[in-house]
Amino acid sequence: MSEMYLKLDPHELNRIFQINLPLEIIINKTSDNGRFDEITGKATILAADTATMTLALSRDLLDWFDLFLPQKMIAVQLSHSNELIFFRSKILRRIIQESFQIIIETPRMVIKRERRLSKRKPLFSPINFRVLRLGDRDLKHLTDKIGAGESQDVSKGGVTLLTNLELPVGLTLLIEFPLAGKSISMIGKIRHVHSLQNSDYSFVAGVQFIQPGSEEQELISRSISQDDILQKGGLSF
């Protein structure tokens, strides 16, 4: 299995979240035009137990320290052995001591991927969708209904959608989500759906893009390439 949800017991917690381990943080910033911009930067684990985790933020995040408010959600990604680990967490408080620090909730579950997967960009952003059809059957009576969820990651071939709606496999959607300061609108088809536990969402769905435009493909490729540059600068994902 190339991707799995891993429930963290104390053994897994100690194995994955080691002191001084580098990781990358992604936090959303609302721009003046109402769109979401992603702010990314590095951090280091200072302490971790079953309830909380303390992270020291690197210098590239200090200009954005005002964004790290209690109750705000962040996304975290890190590399461990041959695994890529992703999770979302809530900020509990922030501290200024010898360094700029935040204390977050320790996740109960993480997403684990093998390195050999094709390149994907973690993308924890709001996502809206409209139902177009199921198989060959048009569902025009539902096109004015807007579904909401959150993207988990994106690649040139598709996006992973977190939602509380149980969407059937084969459903075609018009999806919209922010990426690199722009709003992307694409048509995709549900390829697989799995239920979730211990999550803010009930289901995770894999959406495959249908005839994506060259502009959107270029934007995704450029965003993934920027992640590669960050990784070569000190983090290996």
Query: Ranges with pLDDT <50 over ≥5 residues?
Result: 229-237
The CATH class of the largest domain turns out to be Mainly Beta
Number of helices: 2
DSSP E strands, number: 16
Strand content: over 45%
CATH architecture call of the largest domain? Roll
Per CATH, the superfamily of the largest domain is: Electron Transport, Fmn-binding Protein, Chain A
Q: Would you tell me the overall average pLDDT?
A: 82
Number of individual domains? 2
Biggest pleated-sheet summary? 6 strands, antiparallel, barrel
- How does the helix and strand content classify structurally? mainly beta
With strands numbered from the N-terminus, the spatial order across the biggest sheet is 2-3-4-7-6-5
Amino- and carboxy-terminal Cα gap? 18 Å
User: What is the H/E string?
Assistant: EHEEEEEEEEEEEEEEEH
| Silhouette | globular
CATH topology of the largest domain, anyone? Pnp Oxidase, Chain A
What is the radius of gyration computed over CA atoms, rounded to a whole number of angstroms?
A: 18 Å
Helical residues, percent: 10-25%
Write the layout of secondary structure elements.
Elements: E1 3-7, H1 10-16, E2 22-30, E3 36-48, E4 52-57, E5 73-80, E6 83-96, E7 100-105, E8 109-114, E9 121-122, E10 126-134, E11 137-138, E12 146-155, E13 158-163, E14 171-179, E15 182-195, E16 203-209, H2 214-232
Antiparallel strand pairs: 1-8, 2-3, 2-5, 3-4, 4-7, 5-6, 6-7, 6-8, 9-12, 10-11, 10-12, 10-14, 12-13, 13-16, 14-15, 15-16
Explain this structure:
With 237 residues, the chain is mainly beta. The chain has 2 domains: 3-117, Electron Transport, Fmn-binding Protein, Chain A (Pnp Oxidase, Chain A), CATH 2.30.110; 121-225, predicted glycosyltransferase like domains (Thrombin, subunit H, Beta Barrel), CATH 2.40.10. The chain is built from 2 helices and 16 strands. It has helices spanning 10-16, 214-232, and strands at residues 3-7, 22-30, 36-48, 52-57, 73-80, 83-96, 100-105, 109-114, 121-122, 126-134, 137-138, 146-155, 158-163, 171-179, 182-195, 203-209. Strands 2-3-4-7-6-5 form a 6-stranded antiparallel barrel. A 6-stranded antiparallel β-barrel has the order 10-12-13-16-15-14. A hairpin with a 2-residue loop joins strand 10 (126-134) and strand 11. The longest helix has 19 residues, at 214-232. The two termini are 18 Å apart. The model is unreliable at 229-237 (pLDDT under 50).
